[in-house]
Each structure stands twice: as C-alpha cells, then as structure tokens.
Amino acid sequence: MENKVVDKSQLGLLYDVHDKPGFFTSIILGFQNILTSFGGIVAVPLIIAGIAGCNVVETAFLISAGLLASGITSIIQSAGIGPKKFRIGVGLPTVMGTDFGFVPPANIVINTMGGGLPAYFGATVLGAIFEFILSFFVKPLMKIFTPTVTGTVISLMGMSMMPVAFDWVAGGVGNPNYGDVKYLLVAVIVFVLVLLLNLYGKGMISTAAVLIGIVIGYIICIPMGLVDFSQVAEADWIQLPKILPFGINFELKYVVPFLAGYLVTIIETVGVMETLGQVTGTSMTDEDMVAGVRADAVGSFLSPFIGSGPVQSFSQNVGLIPLTKCASKHIGIVTGLLLIFMSLCPKFSTIISIMPSCVLGGASILMFGTITVSGVKTLLQVELNNRNILIIASALGIGLGVTFRPEVVEQLPGILGSLFGSGISAGTIVALLLSLVLKESPQHTVSEIID
Question: Which residues cross the membrane (predicted)?
C-alpha cells in the first residue's frame, strides 16, 4: 500500500515520500539522521547498564544491541511491511530506538523486584504483545484526535524537547563544566551554520545543512580539547550480534510495571505519526496510525532477543524533514542499514558517540523548533473559539509544566505516575479528555475574547 502524498512542491520538498535520492545523497542524509538520534539510541542502554551493574564488556554489548535493534526496526517502520489490513510500519521516514519512558519500570524490574536483565527482557516481550493487541483499538481512538488535539500535541512535542536541546548546548547534564562558554560558542556556531546553509544554500548544501553544521562543529571541538579519541583506539573493529546474550525470564509479575509504559508509548507514537503526516504532506489514514503503533510493538517484541529494550518512533528526527526538504522513506531505510553496519563496528560507532553534546545541541534548537511550528500550522486551521482555546491552553500548560517540573508528579501512584510522568503524555491526555468532555461553544471566538 502507498500513502497518499501531496505534490512535494507544495511543502517545498526536494524529495517526497516515494522518491529515491542518489546513492551518496542517501548516505549523507542517512548519517544526518543517525547524528540526530545517536544520543537517544545509546543513552538508554548506558542507563540500563548502570542500573544492572554491568561491566565494560556488557555495557558495550548493550549499546551495540541498541544500534542493531534501532536499525532493524527503523527499516520496518519506514518501509511498511505486509498487506493493507495487517501492515507493520507506517511507510514514512522514521528512526526507531530505545525510549527513556521505559527506564523507571526497568529499574523496578531489575532492582526492586530483583529480576535482573533476564526479567527486563522478558517483560519487554510480554509488554510488546500487550501493545500489539492494543494497536487494533487505535483506529476508533483516532476519532477523538481532532486537529485541536493533534496540533496541540505536535506543538508540545517540539516545545518539550527544548530543555533537552539546551542541556546539550550546555555540555550535557552532569557535566562539571555545564554551561562553559566553549560549549555555548560551539553550539552558536552550529546553529548559525545550519540556519544560513538551510536558508541560502543551493541543492545538496541546503539539504545536508544539519550534517554539514554538525561536522564543522565536531571539527572545531578537536583543537578546543573537547574530543577524546583514546576511546576510539580501545574499541574493537568487529562485533557480531548474539541471540539472548543475557537470557530471558517470562514471569508475568515482571510485566506489570511495563504496561503503563506501553500505554504511554501508544499515545506518543500516535503524535509522532501525526507529525510525520504533517511534515511529509501525507494524508494519514486510521490504518497508517495502526501500522505505526504495530511496528513499535513488533520492534519491542524482537529487540530483547538480540539484547535490546523496548523501542519507539523518535520524534527528533521528524524535525529534520522540513529542514532537509527530504521526506523520502528510502532515507529511513538507508538509515536503518547504516545503524546495522555501525552495530557490527564498535570502533566506527565510537567516533560518533564521543561527539560533544554541544554540537548536537546547536542543531537541535532548529529541529525541535520546526516540530513546534508544524503544530502551530495545524492549530491555525482550527476555529479558535473559547472551547478550543481552553483545550489548547490547558494541554500546553500542564504538558510544559510537567516537562519543566517533573518532580510534581513523582508521587502519583502506579499507572497515574507513568501516564503523567512525561510532559508529552500528560498534555496529550489532558487534550483528549477535555476534547471529549467540553461541549462546542462556537459563539465565543478568539477575536471576541481579545476584544
């Protein structure tokens, strides 16, 4: 099945969903996707390794497994596999990876419940089956995802990522030199380069603006003493994947903490799918949404067998599409293949992993900002009566509040703590509930409220 796509010229795209850029262009854009998401792909395996008390070898294997799982699932999500009714994958350019939302339940299973990594992987598989079943109920839920809700969620996704971007700009959380002027200078240089190249560059220069900006920023960091290449020399050249490297435990009690995490994943993935439709000019159907969620479930089911955790569609890479003017799903597939290659070559992946976070931070400001603007474009098509204003204001207020002050909801019990623990999921839930509860009141428009 092929998605219905608008004329690429209407969105200023150089490549639409079904275009196939040339070999070198595809490689460059694929690496650009990897640079954008690499931190997210490797961060969770590092955290899980710390929670489980892994040694250096085990930690390195968890990171490689995360890259491999990301590559395989990105290909599935981007390509879209199977017949229309049972398709797995949305068929739009997407990067998948391990998600931070599963770290709290992982800690409970590994440490509090004492199940270790085998229980963590077993809970991931059982939870993925739960998500796969729920994917069949996504279609009726789409009726309540109105433009008011989706526009708000898309805007919130971009806004809520800004603290992450600025933590990267400042050198990364936990860095003893957080906010050092050197980090800020590099981030500003990258930001300005990406901005100018995207706006004034021609052809491939404009398309690869983010990658060019990141590479130049990386090079600038070397004489500034911000890059340590000793870690590259210590890394192996080749490392083959293994099946069930840490074992697996399927006890049902371990899956309970993960159920809320998978509910949140469904909510956030639907938001990512909506955003993808917006920036690629694709008319998203209910079947597309279901296929996207189903790919998350299948990916999370497969990943533990190669030593990785639950996966989810990344939102940060969606921001690359309007910047690169490339909506080709072929690039998503190429990105997946490159990730698989990198998972087999730890030395090569280490070169990227040692990149100072301030470089990525400078580029991320624009990427996350474009996601926000995509949501605003959707909201501009909504009648801003009193009801819709209240929905938007409430969802953005609560979503951003939880994003900036997550400790407010830390003591919520059980599933409530998981559902409202993320600003994106909290804002989405509020928008959905208010959309269902509040009655239409078209007599109060925004102009009347202002007057």
Answer: 23-48, 60-81, 119-138, 150-171, 183-201, 208-227, 254-273, 331-354, 360-380, 387-404, 416-438
User: Read out DSSP for 60-85?
Assistant: HHHHHHHHHHHHHHHHHHHH-BS-GG
d(CA 45, CA 425): 22
Closest Cα partner for 312 from 350, 265, 345, 277? Answer: 265
What does the alpha-carbon distance between residue 427 and residue 217 come to, in Å, rounded to a whole number? Answer: 35
Tokens 């697996």 sit on residue:
248
Tens digits of residue pLDDT in 104-134: 677 777 876 778 889 999 989 999 998 898 8
> What does the alpha-carbon distance between residue 185 and residue 135 come to, in Å, rounded to a whole number?
45
Task: Tell me how far apart the alpha carbons of residues 299 and 79 are, in angstroms, rounded to a whole number.
Answer: 13
Q: Side chain identity at 386, as an amino acid letter?
A: N
| 238, 127: one domain | yes
pTM above 0.70, yes or no: no
Residue 413, sorted as left (phi over 0), alpha (psi -120 to 50) or beta, turns out to be beta
Give the helix ranges, DSSP H, for 53-180.
56-79, 103-107, 116-135, 138-141, 147-160, 162-169
Q: Does residue 232 lie in a domain region?
A: yes
Residue 122 lies in a domain: yes
Note the pLDDT tens digit of each residue in 247-297: 888 888 788 767 766 776 777 788 788 888 888 888 777 788 888 889 999
Please tell me the distance from the alpha carbon of residue 430 to that of residue 217, in angstroms, as a whole number: 40
Partners of 75 in the β-ladder: none
Which secondary structure element, helix H or strand E, spans residue 96, and what is its range?
A: strand 96-98
Residue 81 sits in the same domain as residue 228: yes
Question: Contact at 8 Å (CB) between 58 and 292?
Answer: no
CB 280 within 8 Å of CB 34: no
Report which of 79, 97, 102, 89 is spatially closest to residue 17, judged by C-alpha positions: 79
Q: Are 395 and 427 in contact (CB under 8 A)?
A: yes
Sort strands 311-313 and 4-5 into parallel, antiparallel or unpaired. Answer: unpaired
Q: How far apart are CA 294 and CA 391, in angstroms?
A: 29
Domain span at 42 = 4-145+224-358
Phi, psi of 65 (to 5 degrees): -65, -35
* Tokens found for residue 249: 């435990």
25 and 75 housed in the same domain:
yes
- Angstrom distance (rounded) from CA 421 to CA 412: 9
Confirm if 441 and 148 have CB atoms less than 8 A apart.
no
347 and 404 share one domain: no
The answer to whether position 158 is within a domain reads no
Residue reference for tokens 């597939």: 333
- Same domain? For 30 and 119 the reply is yes
